[in-house]
Amino acid sequence: MRLPQAQGPRSIELKMTPMIDVVFLLLVFFVWTSSFDLPEFDLQASIARPPVGGLESDELNEEIEEFDEIVIQLNQVEGQLIIYMNDEMVSSIDSLTEKLQSVLSLGIQPPVIIDPSDTVTVGNAVKVYDVARQAGSDRVLFAARAD
User: Fold this and answer.
1) How many domains, in total, are found in the chain?
2) CATH code of the domain in which 84 resides
3) Counting CB atoms within 10 angstroms of each CB, which of 1, 11, 58, 93 has the fewest?
4) 102-118 pLDDT, tens per residue?
């Protein structure tokens, strides 16, 4: 007859490889699902706090608030390009460049939205896009119609 042997305390073995695999898979999942794109819209200027100290001129605040976005409307009549910048007629592309540079020299970067009508050629729309980029605008967008 065989006597039962007393067994000592058994050591519990913790396997690390499956745990490392699960942590790695979670890391890969969160990296793949995160978004590295810039936000599509910025906060409105009315939410931003006014600067503390320094110049507190109302004229400067009014000038900056006017340019939350710059809308350039393009129309072409009888081969002549007609340009409106924020509902104000601009005589030529050179004066459009000067106006854009003066706004962008304030240190703000409002989005420039180009809104061509159906009669405007692609070449003229691209020319205005290039002018806006050369003036120093980082965000130049084209308006889309809901037709």
Assistant:
1) 1
2) 3.30.420.270
3) 1
4) 888 888 788 899 999 98
